[in-house]
Request: fold
Amino acid sequence: MNKIIPLVLFIIVFCFHPENVSAAAYHATWWPVQSIDTMKYSRDTARTRLTDPEFSSVIDTQIKNISATGATHVSISTPYDEEFLPFLRRWVETARRYNLKIWFRGNFSGWEGWFDYPVLSRADHLQKTEAFIKNNIGLFMNGDIFTPCPECENGGPGDPRQTGDVKGFRKFMTDEYQVTQKAFNQIRVQVASNYASMNGDVARLIMDKPTTISMGGLVVIDHYVSTPEKLVADIKSISDTSGGQVVLGEFGVPIPDIHGNLTDIEQADWLERTLNLLSQTAQISGLNYWVNVGGSTEIWSKDGFPRKAVEVLTHYFKPDQFTGFIANTLGQPISGARIFYHQRYYSSDQDGAYHLPSLPPPQQIIISSPGYKDQGVLLASSQEIPYIIMAKDRPNIIYLLKELLFRLTHSIIGK
Reply:
């Protein structure tokens, strides 16, 4: 027996070489895109603050506060015109210092007549957008989002609900997507440009299933409604009719004409109820809170003082975590295992570690991986770190031998 033990141990180490399993420094979120909008300062002050050096401290404070919430992106609405590029770069450079991705939600000023710019045609907009991307490579990073024409219905040829030009609107939107994706591919930066935000009622008219497919399966709505329940119901309805995932390009409270005037506590309560429902809604894959400072929905004062809503938003952007590990019966970590949890899919990392945003236990998860049997697990406590062992679906003779040796070795070591 003494001669067998070293041989078995050698076989185990040589054949299996299991990786060291440790929890990665990763924080799971409810939504892959968690953004806060800066429009009132990044767009509305673009000309008056264009050359004001003291405004850099304002930008820094706003970006720092947004980053602290756990946001993945900051929405910057500075126009894409040459005049405003220095201002846009200041916002972008500050966001990079705080490790934020950018959701570019500007436009060319002529589309809606901002800052007295002449009106643009659709053809001009396409040409200028392509040139803007190619001429400003340094602005973009992998993981950014670029919206070439937010709420496009508010400018150009007009709103298709009034003009009746549904076909033309759809074509322009898909043309913009194709042109921008081609441009980003040419500069070799992975930027999503299918976030074509529009009014919710416009989305109901425009985003049929073929159009949604042509836009990569995504519908982006800027949507303000009276109650959290209606917001979720509208998201589900638009997802059903379009066949796509929904992103909230804008949402927030209070809009006085819809919600009246809310106190800090009432605003925070509305947001808490909304985010709680959205965290349980499978059809939504991202959101952008409008706005950080300067509007009726602001969550910071102009001096950077947070309202109660900031704490609520932070709780959902940086949720508590369930953490554990997934391995096979040889003790080898399984990377890329799919974890179905709360109507969403998550994945294990290269070390077999998984991270899930936590809700009060118990919570059920279902784990699947090619070549292994699906497994359901009950997370009974947020304090536990479940080590989940997955069995091979159809193990071959070599795997079975390895498994036998693995068990034998552990049995011997245990003795």
About this structure: Residues 33-317 form a domain with the TIM Barrel fold (CATH 3.20.20.80). The chain has two domains: 4-25+320-414, 33-317.
